[in-house]
Amino acid sequence: GIEERSQTFAVPEGKYRRLLVGQDRLFLLSDPVKGSARQNWLAREMPAESRVQTFNFKTNKLEDFLNGVTDFHLNESGSHFVARYGNSLRVGKVADGKWKKDENGEYSED
Fold it and tell me: What's this model's pTM, rounded to 2 decimal places?
């Protein structure tokens, strides 16, 4: 049954919006916990405040993957991702590294 195909692991308490399974990893999209009283509901661009972390099933470690995103998806095989940053999209290969924002605001593999 499902007991043989499932694995338990601990992650910090958070506001997780999406969980996606990739190659040997679980991708967790989380939003910051904050109030909504001062949020601009009429803004044309969605704020890019979420982050994507990965839980590596081989090492049992949680690591940062992308920061400052609006949304995140994986392709069917889990080898490539698409990330939304406000009104822009970024497509990339998951690979084994982390993605970092450079001084120009562009993301590249670490």
Answer: 0.75
As a whole number of angstroms, the distance between CA 22 and CA 106 comes to 23
* Amino acid identity, position 66: L
Measured distance CA(21)–CA(39) in Å, rounded: 31
Q: How far apart are CA 1 and CA 68, in angstroms?
A: 39
Distance between CA atoms of residues 104 and 81, nearest Å: 21
| Closest of 108, 107, 21, 109 to residue 69, by C-alpha | 107
SS (H, E, C) 47-100: CCCEEEEEEECCCCEEEEEEEEECEEEECCCCCEEEEEECCEEEEEECCCCCEE
Summarised one tens digit per residue, pLDDT across range 44-93 is 666 788 999 999 888 989 999 999 999 999 999 888 899 998 888 988 88
